[in-house]
Amino acid sequence: MFKEGDKISYPMHGAGFIEAVEERDFLDEKKRYYVLRFSEGDIKVHVPVENAEKAGLRSIISTDECHEVIELFRSSDEIEESDNWNRRNRENLEKMKSGDVFEIATVIKSLLKRETHKNLSSSEKKMLGTSMQILVSELALASNKKDEEVRKIITQVL
Fold this sequence. Notes:
Elements: E1 7-10, E2 14-26, E3 29-38, E4 44-48, H1 52-55, E5 58-59, H2 63-74, H3 85-98, H4 101-117, H5 122-143, H6 147-157
Antiparallel strand pairs: 1-2, 1-5, 2-3, 3-4
Helix pairs in contact: 3-4, 4-5, 5-6
């Protein structure tokens, strides 16, 4: 169970904090909710405590894992992806929805590699921007750096 002030990550939103744990009435039943506040924008999300794990709410990664993510960008390992745009897009979206930083990093790496060879479609550009924001927010919070610093590190590594 999380408590107020914990650093968290939530799929498709990125990293943030548990702002509060509240009790609310829902259909004549009292339920407890985590109130999440995200680093990016002024967004608040309420997640039922009982469904938090199933929804993908988790603690942010460690500083060691931050280094592992950066190393993933440095590695020359090829990322398998479909030649079919629709299938590739669906696979990338599933990776992002997983909330796993390593999966999100592979989406970024793959899209940036693809961008060097040909123009990305508008939906791929949007996916690249979203996945970069999600990853940067978590790496920044986990390493106590500013988003701009983390974005610069990723850009330099790539």
